Structures are given as structure tokens and as C-alpha cells.
């Protein structure tokens, strides 16, 4: 809501321009505008008044103040001429920079120029009592002569020149400080450039060394895989022969052996069988590391795979203290490699049966979003958190853990994780010592 006008006056002759300038400065002072804003408002009024008087007829000037919301001083200067909006807006474009807002439009009484300046935050509150005081103070105001106004303008000009001079001195000081700072920045920049160049040379040398080490590591890995493959392949024949000869010695068609001889032959056959298992594991791992295992993708019947695992591993679960369960799969099919998938699950189940003394070993599968999640859970010894990644290293076995049945080679889990990667999935373990372990194989439903 806009209050009643503070003052009104008419612009008739050029001398009235001095009067409206004085009045504008006085109104701005009484409502709480700062000194510079008073001068800006007075200058804007005198310029607009000069332009309106050039149209040849008197103009009305009205001062009002908005006390609700953001306190604002409003000035409306009305001239009876019409159709002058565009020309006045062009002439007063520069004047508009002296106030917060300036509008030129066509009103009921003619062309109206409206100007507004917001009061500063520290200005006194425009209470009804304060508004009454402002009305009384403005009513007592007596305009000065043009010479008085000229003296005021000269004083304002001197103050402005002093302020400009002070700003110029501050600017010169800041320029000197900036120049000194620039010299320091340039020196620091040069130092940093030299250090960066030296660092870059070191990084380049380090990368070259890393490339060389990577090439050596790749060559060593290739040599290891080649060695494992060759040695494993060469060992399979004599080990198989030892097993066969042991079987011939204990065959019913051979000469009867003494009890001690039969015991020793059984030891030889058992050791050879363990060695053959290790050789086969090494050969499979070497193939996986060399990238020579290519999956054959097809629709895998999980019910058939689970049934096969249940049948082949049942002979290993002979201890009544362990409940061996292969649940019915919740998924009918999965697009994967049936042989490799069965090998991963077999390795996980065999490992769980070896290290579970009592409790249960359970295989299940469920769908998680677009993946199938196979879970092998046991109640075995468990694995400490700091060793849960090391069990996927070749030949590593958890210290203190002893298989309840069979012997561990430390190759089953590393091979299972590599096969999981070949199938496009991942294998992880969650375990608590003394409570058991859960191995989770996650594979995409569609390859």
C-alpha cells in the first residue's frame, strides 16, 4: 500500500529545476537515503525536469514513500503531452542509472516518468509517527536561490573530487601491491614449473620402468602357465601308470600279496591318486590363466545340473553329522556353459564338505534382478576376515584348518573364481570363524 504523497510541486520555468533539485535532495534526506543517494536522486530529478520543460508545458512532480515491505522512495513526474514515451525513454536512458528503477509510460494525465530508490537497511523505520514528522519537516522547508543550489552543487563536486582522489590513491597503492604480488607469483610459478618439469621427467621414467616390469611380469606369467601346463601334462602319464600298476598288483588274477605288501601298494595308489588330482588341477588352472578355455553357451537346465551334483557328491557326504542338501532350483534355466558351471559348483561343494565337521552344507539358487545367485553355505571352521581374499590364491590354505575328509590342494577355489570370470560373473565369500562360510556365485541370466 502506497502512503499519501509527501509533497507536490509544479515545474513551470527553468528556475523551478533548481527548486525540484533542492526538494528532491531534502525529501531523500528526510526519509533516510545516504548522502550519495541524495545527490543521485536530486540530479535525476533535475535532468528529468529539464527534459520535460523542453516540451513547453508545466509538469507535476509528486513524492511518495512506500513503507510496507521494502521501504522505497517514489517520484512521479507527469507532463500533459502524449505520445512522447519512446523519445523520452531514449533521452533519459543515462539518467536511469542514477536510480533503482525508471519507467516512462502513458498515464491518464499524459506522459509519466516514474523513478524509485530503495532506502538502505540502516534507515529509520517509517512508522506513522515518523511519517508525521517528515510531513511537518518538509512543510517547513524553504527552497533556496539558484546561487544557494550552485554552492551546494559545488560542495558536492568538491566532495566527489576528494573521493575520486582518495580512490585514485588507493588504486595506485593496490596496483603497486598487485605488481609486487605478480612478481612473487611469477617467481613461484617459475619454481613450480621447474619442479613440475622435474616431476614429469621422473613420472616418465617411472612409467617406462613400469612398462618394462609389466612386460617382464607378463613374460613370467606366460612362462609359469607354460611350465605348469607342460609339467602337468608330462606327469599325468607316469602317475596314471603308477595307479594302473597298483591296480594290477591287487587284482585277483595276480599273485597273492601279503597283508603288508597290500597295505604298501594301497599307499602307493592313494599317493598317486592325490598326485593325479593335483596335476589335473594344475593343468586346468594353467588353461584358465592362458585364456584357452572358451565357454560353450547354451540354455542350461539347472534342475538337471543340481540333480547331477546331488548324485556325484553324495558319496563324499558320508558323515551323519553333516546334512548335505541341494535345494530344488528356483530358476528353470540359465544361459551359460553347463560344464564350467557344474565345475565351479562342484569345487565349492567339495571344498565345503572337506572342511565341515558337523552341521550342514547347502546349495541354493535365486534370481536377483537380471542375475542368478548361487549360494553354497556351510557350518565349517570359517575364515578370518583378513584371509578371505587369500584363499583365492594358488596353493594357499588357511593356517590351522584341517580337512575332515580328503586332502586340500589349494587350487579348487582359485580355479572356481577364474571360471566364474570366464562365465561373465563373480565369486565372493562371506565367513565368520567358528560359524561357517558362504560362497556366492553371481552370473548373468543371459550371456
From TrEMBL:
Residues 230-447 form the Histidine kinase domain. It is an enzyme of class 2 (transferase). Keywords: Coiled coil, Kinase, Phosphoprotein, Transferase, Two-component regulatory system. The keyword Phosphoprotein applies. It comes from the Bacteria. It catalyses: ATP + protein L-histidine = ADP + protein N-phospho-L-histidine. Its EC number is 2.7.13.3. InterPro entries: HATPase_C_sf (IPR036890), HATPase_dom (IPR003594), His_kinase_dom (IPR005467), HisK_dim/P_dom (IPR003661), HisK_dim/P_sf (IPR036097), Sensor_HK_Regulatory (IPR050736), Sig_transdc_His_kin-like_C (IPR004358). One of its GO terms (cellular component) is plasma membrane. The keyword Hydrolase does not apply. GO terms for molecular function: phosphorelay sensor kinase activity. Its main location: membrane. PROSITE patterns: HIS_KIN (PS50109). Residues 147-209 form a coiled coil. Gene3D superfamilies: 1.10.287.130, Histidine kinase-like ATPase, C-terminal domain. It is found in: Cell membrane. This is histidine kinase. It comes from Actinoplanes philippinensis. The lineage of its organism: Bacteria, Bacillati, Actinomycetota, Actinomycetes, Micromonosporales.
Amino acid at each position: 500500500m502506497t502512503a499519501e504523497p509527501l509533497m507536490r510541486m509544479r515545474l513551470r520555468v527553468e528556475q523551478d529545476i533548481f527548486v525540484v533539485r533542492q526538494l528532491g535532495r531534502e525529501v531523500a534526506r528526510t526519509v533516510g537515503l545516504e548522502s550519495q543517494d541524495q545527490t543521485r536522486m536530486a540530479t535525476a530529478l533535475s535532468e528529468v525536469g529539464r527534459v520535460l520543460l523542453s516540451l513547453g508545458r508545466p509538469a507535476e512532480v509528486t513524492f511518495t514513500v512506500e513503507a510496507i515491505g521494502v521501504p522505497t522512495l517514489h517520484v512521479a513526474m507527469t507532463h500533459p503531452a502524449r505520445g512522447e514515451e519512446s523519445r523520452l525513454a531514449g533521452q533519459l536512458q543515462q539518467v536511469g542509472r542514477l536510480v533503482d528503477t525508471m519507467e516512462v509510460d502513458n498515464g491518464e494525465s499524459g506522459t509519466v516518468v516514474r523513478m524509485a530508490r530503495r532506502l538502505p537497511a540502516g534507515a529509520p523505520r517509517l512508522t506513522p509517527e515518523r511519517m508525521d514528522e517528515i510531513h511537518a519537516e518538509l512543510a517547513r522547508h524553504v527552497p533556496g536561490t539558484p546561487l544557494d543550489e550552485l554552492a551546494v552543487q559545488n560542495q558536492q563536486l568538491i566532495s566527489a573530487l576528494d573521493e575520486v582522489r582518495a580512490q585514485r590513491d588507493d588504486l595506485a597503492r593496490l596496483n603497486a601491491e598487485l605488481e609486487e604480488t605478480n612478481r612473487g607469483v611469477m617467481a613461484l610459478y617459475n619454481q613450480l614449473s621447474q619442479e613440475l618439469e622435474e616431476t614429469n621427467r621422473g613420472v616418465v621414467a617411472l612409467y617406462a620402468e613400469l612398462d618394462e616390469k609389466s612386460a617382464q611380469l607378463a613374460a613370467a606369467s606366460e612362462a609359469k602357465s607354460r611350465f605348469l601346463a607342460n609339467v602337468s601334462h608330462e606327469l599325468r602319464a607316469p602317475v596314471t601308470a603308477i595307479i594302473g600298476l597298483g591296480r594290477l598288483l591287487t587284482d585277483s588274477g595276480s599273485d597273492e600279496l601279503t597283508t603288508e605288501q597290500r597295505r604298501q601298494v594301497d599307499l602307493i595308489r592313494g599317493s598317486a591318486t592325490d598326485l593325479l588330482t593335483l596335476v589335473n588341477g594344475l593343468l586346468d588352472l594353467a588353461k584358465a590363466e592362458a585364456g584357452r578355455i572358451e565357454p560353450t553357451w547354451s540354455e542350461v537346465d539347472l534342475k538337471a545340473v543340481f540333480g547331477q551334483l546331488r548324485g556325484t557328491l553324495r558319496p563324499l557326504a558320508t558323515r551323519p553329522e553333516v546334512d548335505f542338501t541341494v535345494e530344488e532350483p528356483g530358476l528353470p534355466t540359465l544361459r551359460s556353459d553347463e560344464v564350467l558351471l557344474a565345475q565351479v559348483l562342484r569345487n565349492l561343494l567339495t571344498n565345503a564338505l572337506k572342511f565341515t565337521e558337523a552341521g550342514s552344507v547347502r546349495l541354493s539358487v535365486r534370481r536377483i534382478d537380471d542375475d542368478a545367485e548361487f549360494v553354497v553355505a556351510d557350518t565349517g571352521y570359517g575364515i578370518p576376515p583378513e584371509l578371505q581374499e587369500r584363499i583365492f590364491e594358488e596353493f594357499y590354505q588357511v593356517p590351522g584348518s584341517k580337512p575332515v575328509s580328503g586332502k586340500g590342494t589349494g587350487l579348487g577355489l582359485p580355479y572356481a573364481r577364474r571360471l566364474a570370470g570366464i562365465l561373465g560373473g563373480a565369486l565372493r565369500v562371506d565367513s565368520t570363524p567358528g560359524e561357517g562360510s558362504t560362497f556366492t556365485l553371481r552370473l548373468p541370466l543371459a550371456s
